[in-house]
Predict the structure.
Amino acid sequence: MIRALLTSIALFCIPMLLSANDGYKLWLQYYPIENPQAWQENVLKQVSIDGNNETITIIKNELEVASQGFFSTKPLFVKENPSLLIALREQLPSSLSQSASKDLGTEGYHIYSKNGQTVITANSKFGLLYGTFRLLQEIQKQEIISETGIVEIPKVKHRVLNHWDNLNRTVERGYSGFSIWNWHRLPRHIDQQYLDYARANASLGINGTSVTNVNANALVLTPYYLEKVQALADAFRPYGIKLYITARFSSPMEIGGLETADPLNKEVQDWWKDKTKEIYEYIPDFGGFLVKADSEGQPGPHNYGRTQAEGANMLADAVKPFGGIVMWRAFVYSEKTPDDRHKQAYNEFVPLDGKFRDNVIVQVKNGAIDFQPREPFHPLFGAMPKTPLMMEFQITQEYLGHDTHLAFLAPMYEEVLKQDTYINGKGSEVAKVIDGSLHDYSFTGMAGVANIGTDRNWTGHHFHQANWYAYGKLAWNPWGNSGEIAEDWIKLTFTNQKEFVDPIKKMMLNSHEMVVNYMTPLGIHHIMARSHHYGPGPWVTGGERSDWTSTYYHNASESGMGFDRTQTGSNALEQYSTQLQEEWGDLNSIPNKYLLWFHHLPWDYQMNSGNILWDEIAFHYQKGVNEARENVKIWKDLQKHVDRFRFEHVLSFLEIQAEEAEWWRDAVLLYFGQYSGLPLPEGVEAPKHDLEYYMNIEHKFVPGI
Ligand code: GCV
């Protein structure tokens, strides 16, 4: 009897364990391939790869893990007659070289088939590593490698993750647990997760990481921490990843004993030169510094009456002899400046165009305010022809519901990258600033503020792995397509089955717009709760600075709402090209998505849909709620395609999201309804509670601050 019971428990548990997938493997699942085509089955059987270095060992391991996962076999590493030849171009036998692979640069790769063999070639071991990951992805997706094959060359040079991780392991705006950097155990203990992190990044072509918060702590520059940073750099190096750290501008005073941090002071300059030399002794290929200065209480050159260029150049001179760079953030604004926050970075940086050293790249957020659910592109893009500018996207969802709200961000990134600035006439897209082609420079970059933490699945929501993935893909190629990125990610992470891929792709591609609908439609912005930014807070007002309040941005009153950024208002519009000034300044041509970003309008303003503004706003909120509810249904219907762990995890998050979409709708409509004085239009559900109820919701210890 007892034995029978135990047997049945065991039989019940085995499938449960087998179906346990905690998501740790990200998009590198390498799940079994059913009915593989002959070439797929054969390609990993006999592999030839020469060379004796850590990167080559990583490539071999990857091939083993993948082959084991796909086909339950291990590849044989051979010298003769391989099915897969992985070789540097200079090592390729002439019978196998191809002309198309000539211009691969230092990181590009070419995968092709010739004479029955599959070949991966590149000019460097990192090109081979990227090519290997790509081949494995193609195998998982069941694609064929043709004779011309795949030629890939990154369009952006510095593809960097920015971790806003503090030395105490909290993560500013991080919602997936603690920082994965265990500073206390470093340098002696190298956690497996560091290597898995590097591997995942390499699989996307990410080639840099800045491991500390931009709200920086000078201690990271002391020998105690440099030893630890060195250990991380050593772990990442074989994966082609350079390490950067954030430099606190006042470090010479805080840890150097100087009385000033003035960038024009010789002692200060020498301090940074010596410090930099010391860092390079620990990390010979150190990437350089990332700096946030003169922003939100951070020290900077303004403290000494100096410009951003003078501050950046001092650090640039220090790293220059070692080949390092400075990524200097343009997120500079002050509550003491009476101007619209939207305009401040542009006003500060444009006059400095051409004044930065050639190893400084200015890092600009995608929009001028701050990673709102939707923002028009930052007017700096295109406006500094003599200064390389890099993009900063936020992958972590500070303003997008944190970790429980599904928002696939590739469409948002794509919207910004493909937006025409019209700076040099039609066809001057933001992506051309980022890939350097608009102003003809090769010093290019993209940064993504990481959403990675100690959560077992890395990113909190399983679907937010897709945002890390999408960032990596767009950093490699800013002209990439969200649909293709979503489809590939689904296939690599879950399954190739069309019945799953199609609806999930649709759900992902709509998810960002859905969140915009129930949070901030029609150009409404910055109306979230104070400080932690979780949930609605259109009533936020007062406090230490007005540019951190909601009322500063929405300007709601009985007469209407919206921020007038036209000539009758702050005229932030004048920072864009004349083409866009005309398009966005005119109520007949501005896209609805930017309407209240640039215009203050009465509640009964007649929209081209036939609705008045108030009704249109209300319909958007309701639409967002409906879509969030629908996603729960879509997911439930697909249960049979997903392992139990990930199914349940995602389901509970989608349910939270649907509930919180209602919270947003009700709170915001009740609040603005006080001013519009109008009833909710038919089709919009009545709020469950009164405004006071929503204003009194207080979440304790929200992560990320
Ligand atoms: C790291 C926003 C965030 C801050 C962040 C800042 C920045 O203001 O709320 O947490 O600070 O952006 O990008 O520097």
User: Anything to note?
Assistant: The pocket of 4-O-methyl-alpha-D-glucopyranuronic acid is lined by residues 164, 172-173, 214-215, 292, 296, 331, 370, 398 (CB under 6 Å). The mean pLDDT is 95.
